[in-house]
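Check the record.
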Amino acid sequence: MTKIWEPSFIYNLDPNSKNYPIALIILNQPIPEYQSRLFENLWSKADVILCADGGANRLYDYLKASNRQTELLPNYVIGDLDSIRDDVVEFYQSQGVNPIKIDDQYSTDFTKCFKHIEELNQHDIYNIVMLGGLNGRFDHSISQVNNLYDLKDHRYPLYIISDSSLTFLLDKGEHELNFNPNYEGPTCGLLPLGFPVKSLTTEGLVWNLENHESKMGGMVSTSNLLQENKVKVITSDPICWTIELK
């Protein structure tokens, strides 16, 4: 069975575009001004918004620059709260958003947020979008990539948005990826970050692969390009798909 992907629903404000429930998790990385259109669209489309600990600092600072910190409030601030500043705690408390402290050093602030979403929602399938997951420290970035693999069998699809790219995991099998050129592409890549991929076949790229092995220390498809807005991928093992954002 082919899995269909249409990721532009995350930030496409066209009223004719498809809509699915979205949970936005803001991580502890700066929200750059040049990403403001993407951020505002994400915020508009999200059904629930969580700041993972120091992500609350990033949201507050981003909005304070335009004196809008009281206009856009997250639903929850969650984590071990070792990164959030005192002034940010006081501000959100004054706005009725009380940070939730979870002392569990065996889970990350992201997984604390993820578990909270599970507890909140027993019926709908949220698409979980991590904002800022692949910026900053390398070990933090690898931790977020690990989440893609660790949660691949979960019912919630998981996407990572960084400064300039959208990344998600394609599990083994056949996939059809549909992209909106107003938001995504053309540069893209297929990255075997978890396991070697014994066989990888693609259609719709400038440099397609046919039953090709892909592994770290071997062939990795980076800086590829969309030839069409619909891409087909058949993979024997899980592999990360990444595409640039405009």
